[in-house]
Amino acid sequence: MILGDVLDNPVVDAEGRFVGYAIDARFAVEGPAERPVARLRLVALVVSPRTRTSFLGFERSAVRSPWPIARWYRWRHRGSFAVPWADVAVATATGVTLRPGFRRHPPGERM
């Protein structure tokens, strides 16, 4: 799977109901980060119910400036959430299907 094929595609729940678009991904560093190339593991997808655009980092609660842009991004992405990768049933180049009972987390939360 190539992540770029999954991003910007529709996300549906187990019953096929639209829940948003895959707009970003969250990774965890595995092993020592001091290595020249750290190993990364995909831990979550970020889903936006309104837009296909990324947060550009403004989902992180500490990012507050420039304030007009940060405020606009928070408004534009209201209702967005992160879904643990374990809750993804199928991810293809045409869309993402979530498992029954998937969990929603705040988009900036570390997982």
Provide a concise account of the structure shown.
The chain is mainly beta and 111 residues long.
Question: Can you tell me about this structure?
Answer:
The chain starts with a helix and ends in a 13-residue tail after the last strand. A hairpin with an 8-residue loop joins strand 2 (18-30) and strand 3 (39-48). It is built from two helices and six strands, in the order H-E-E-E-H-E-E-E. By secondary structure, it is mainly β. The chain has a six-stranded mixed sheet with strand order 4-3-2-1-6-5. The mean pLDDT is 84. 22% of the residues are buried.
Structural class: mainly beta
Lateral strand order in the biggest sheet: 4-3-2-1-6-5
Q: Please provide the count of β strands.
A: 6
Distance N terminus to C terminus? Answer: 21 Å
- Strand portion, in percent? 35-45%
What multimeric state do the chains show? Answer: single chain
Low confidence ranges: none
Q: How many strands, which pairing sense, and closed or not: the largest β-sheet? A: 6 strands, mixed
Overall 3D shape: globular
Supply the key terms:
111 residues; mainly beta; 2 helices
Fold blueprint:
Elements: H1 3-6, E1 10-12, E2 18-30, E3 39-48, H2 67-76, E4 81-84, E5 88-92, E6 95-98
Parallel strand pairs: 1-6
Antiparallel strand pairs: 1-2, 2-3, 3-4, 5-6
